[in-house]
Write a structure and sequence with these properties.
alpha+beta; two-stranded antiparallel sheet; 2 helices; about 45% helix
Length: about 140
């Protein structure tokens, strides 16, 4: 009778184990990215809540002392009335690899976007829209497009 040698069985077992570990690593990486995207979405939804508070307080998104966006076109991390904007920005930057959080606003509208770890963009605006893909804040319409 001719069977498999112990060495042949060990080699096959080693190859199977190697393939299983490669698949597990890929699955874990994908799960981590999904988790980071979820954190970013959650934090950007908090921006919507803060923007509503800013508008209620100032009747605009761009009040001199209570603005959603700063003069550089990013989320206003130095808003003293709403220090939670800084916390939100820090959490988003931690999750997306320290990428910029773009912000455009005028009296009646705002738009915030940033890049996700997947390379896609995520965008929210004053209409309650949240879009993922290649959407960015349009400076002419101040909305996700």
């Amino acid at each position: 009778m001719r069977g498999f040698t112990l060495i042949e069985l060990l080699i096959v077992l080693g190859i199977v184990a190697l393939l299983a570990s490669l698949i597990a690593i890929a699955v874990m990486r994908e799960a981590k990215i999904r988790s980071l995207v979820g954190k970013i979405e959650s934090n950007l939804s908090q921006v919507r809540q803060v923007a509503a508070q800013i508008y209620t307080e100032s009747n605009t998104y761009i009040a001199a002392d209570n603005s959603l966006c700063d003069i550089n076109g990013t989320l206003n991390e130095n808003n003293l009335t709403h220090p939670e904007l800084k916390d939100i920005a820090e959490q988003v930057k931690k999750a997306n690899g320290n990428r910029t959080i773009n912000c455009i606003a005028d009296d009646r509208s705002y738009c915030v976007d940033t890049e996700l770890p997947t390379g896609e963009k995520i965008c929210i605006d004053h209409k309650g829209v949240i879009k993922k893909g290649n959407f960015i804040c349009s400076p002419t319409k101040i909305e996700c497009e």
